[in-house]
Amino acid sequence: MKQSFYKRIGESIYSQRLPNGLEVRVVPKPGYAKKYAFFATCYGGMDTRFCLNGKWLDTPAGIAHYLEHKMFDTKEGNALQELAKNGAEPNAFTSNAMTGYYFDSTDHFEENLEILLSFVSVPYFTEESVAKEQGIIGQEIRMIEDNPDWQIYTRMLECLYSSSPARTSIAGTVESISHITAETLYDCHKAFYTPSNMILTVVGEVDPVHVVDLAKRILPREGGPVIPRDYGDEPETIAQAETSRTMEVSCPQFLAGFKCRPAGEGEDYMRLSVIGDIACDILLGDSSPLYLRLYDQGLINTSFGGSFEMMPGIAYLYAGGDSKDARTVAAEIQKEADRLVREGIDEAFYQQVTRAAFGSNLRGLNSFENIAVSLTEGYFHGYDPFRFPEVFDSITKEDVTAFLRDNIRAERMVLSEIVPPQT
Amino acid sequence: MEVTRKKLADGVYLTCLPARKFKTSLLSAQFVTPLRKETAAACALLPAVLRRGTVTYPDMGSLAARLDRLYGARIDYTVRKKGENQCVGFVASFIDDSFTPGGEKLLEPVADLLGELVCDPATRHGRFVPAYFESEKTNLIDAIRSLINDKRDYADSRLLREMCAGEPYGVPRLGDEAEAERLQPKKLYALYQELISTARLELFYSGSADRRRVEQALLSAFSALPRDVVRDIAIPRDHVARQEVLRIEEAMDVTQGKLGMGFSCGSSDTAALLMGNTLFGGSSNSKLFLNVREKLSLCYYASSLYHRQKGLITVSSGIEFDKFQQAYEEILAQLEAIRKGDLEDWELEGAKSTLLNAYASMGDSQGKLENFYLGQAATGQSETPEMLAQQVREITPERIFEAMGTVTLDTVYFLKGKEAAE
């Protein structure tokens, strides 16, 4: 087993690739009672069109999420119960590009890990159980449709993208999930839940050798082929400049989104992610001149914030919150980016912001879930997230200015608004 | 590494939670004051206004820059309800000294900043800066109104308000909108002076520094804190169970209905009620989750919460409008099953391990530790998580059946769609 040390952040990782292609990582955390396991496949809400056995398949929107729900069914009953009996807190999530299953527990860790690896690798569906799930997921979809935060975000993505599957909700729609059958679920499981498309990350005081032995014993001996996916041919231009919808909210909310150039894989991916985050802080973070000015003018409140996101084939920066005048705020963001590009970023402010960003990345290492999810993302994209101090060192003010110049442009901006009913 | 609680000054206590395993340290300063309808909004507004500026860092810009330079230290204002007390103050989190690239010490400067936020706010003519007062007042009113944006939280809060109307426990954490609208700068400043001199101050530290260094840093940071006669904290009174169930319905433009049910508990066996609630709807292995959600597909979520400080259990669920009666009956049927002892061994074992796991892992999160020990201090209790875990280990099934036998339905709240109402 390989062991890597990261002196600047006080962490280490054991790693090994098994013959079936599964990557296993163990991050020791001495002194913690809790142990955490995260078992993930590189398969998410965006992977609806892919090539299996030489044939291109179009699967219904929401199928990865549906599959996640159904994986907990086992021939004997339900894996949730098995884990909960041992006091473990199991759960799962589906994002755009991955599906992850996890639990944390203080006792019976290896027993729980065995249950996790088994139920995720052995599918068990019947037509009846698949049909029944439509009620549960249908309710989940209705619940998120009532959520203004979700509405505003989804509608922003629809404005930004014309062909990328990021346009469609991860959970799909009540209509799209009605086409899901046990057979499609088995197909998707076979294609994507193969050890060579997966990674197991364990965080806590656990013997790495036991983890590897257990994975070898439970999982299939051979991995599957690489599955080509199709994310559409997304143009550089936005699909639609703005959208607005009325909902029962207390005050108007908005998100302004900027369509950014996507990154390549490997360390480039990580660099762009860090550059995008720093650009976001400099442009509109809590200590930025723009934030302070808009707050003083009463145009934004503490709900205001922004973020930079990357998904397969796409990247975008967005910001928003409550505002009585979304249009002005959006225009001010654009103007501030132009100013920064024209005048350059103040050196002292740049140092201050990167210092804070370093602290915030370090803080993230308190969270086992965050460690596991970022190692998983790093593995799928070919970079090592624990090298963030070195990546920080390599980024300059000019990288950030170039990012703003290329991406924060009026023609790349969309505006999504939710407004209360007029009384 | 033992947890200690020590009196630093009149009505000022420091709880030290030593730990070396975190990347960060936590410092918290919390005033504990009885929750009252008349003052809740004002107390909630106070830390927000204080967070805007101090004498040395008079505006958000200079404060934010200061925190950035302390390697992205965070100081958040907090407003929490613990039993029938309101706890207001600040929680600071900053990277541990061993990870600052230049070996800088952060405990002392962060403690100083915390002390300054409390004792030396930016003022003008003997009051808070008018612009800070006004904008934070607007933010508070917006925050109170925005509860409606998340229908699940909204329904949970409405249930509690109706059930405990007239009791401090029914007062929302942030107070109500009408009280917030009435707030005046002069009165708020008077309340501030009274609060910092008469309310109990609970301080918390979690991190790698030794206790004496923490005490020194805090004594120095809070040396300007005025202390008068310190008032008692509120001890929660038992909820008086209703003779007849209170039923509330409300219609809104939503696609999913929310059913909330409030129960009062007649037993004082808190450990047995805690277990009973875990079996009922407190975990993903509970009767509500497995039957109402998984088996009958009646809802997307159904869970229950035991309010230990007040002796209540509340159920929260999201359902289709026309499933109201079915879900309502099924929830009551599941409660009845626990009372009758209709439980399998694995359910008991599972509930026990869920609770033991939660207590054992509490020490792994600085935020959870601070929140737990604040709750204990604010309700006059002193058990450690380990002691509570021991109580759980000793519970017998008979005690659970008996305690759950005293649980009676008190209030039902239903949020339905507009079309369904017509």
Give a verbal description of the structure.
Chain A contains 15 helices and 16 strands. Chain A is globular, with a radius of gyration of 22 Å. A 7-stranded mixed β-sheet of chain A has the order 1-2-3-11-4-10-9, with helices on both faces. Chain A folds into 2 domains: 2-218, Cytochrome Bc1 Complex, Chain A, domain 1 (2-Layer Sandwich); 242-419, Cytochrome Bc1 Complex, Chain A, domain 1 (2-Layer Sandwich), CATH 3.30.830.10. In chain A, helix 9 (267-284) crosses helix 12 (347-363), helix 9 packs across helix 15 and helix 11 (326-343) packs across helix 15. Chain A is of the alpha+beta class and 423 residues long. Chain A starts with a strand and ends with a strand. In chain B, strands 1-2-8-3-5-4 form a 6-stranded mixed β-sheet, with helices on both faces. Chain B is globular, with a radius of gyration of 23 Å. The mean pLDDT of chain B is 93. Chain B has helices spanning 40-50, 60-69, 107-119, 130-145, 151-163, 177-181, 185-198, 211-221, 270-281, 287-295, 324-339, 345-361, 366-378, 385-393, 397-404, 418-421; strands at 4-9, 12-18, 24-34, 74-82, 85-95, 123-124, 127-128, 200-207, 246-252, 257-265, 299-307, 312-319, 407-417. Chain B is α+β, with helices and mostly antiparallel strands and 422 residues long. The N and C termini of chain B lie far apart (62 Å). Chain B has 2 domains: 4-221, Metalloenzyme, LuxS/M16 peptidase-like (Cytochrome Bc1 Complex, Chain A, domain 1); 246-421, 2-Layer Sandwich (Cytochrome Bc1 Complex, Chain A, domain 1), CATH 3.30.830.10. In chain B, strand 1 and strand 2 form a beta hairpin. The chains are: A alpha+beta (423), B alpha+beta (422). Chains A and B meet through helix 2, strand 9, helix 4, helix 10 and helix 12 of A and helix 2, strand 5, helix 4, helix 10 and strand 11 of B.
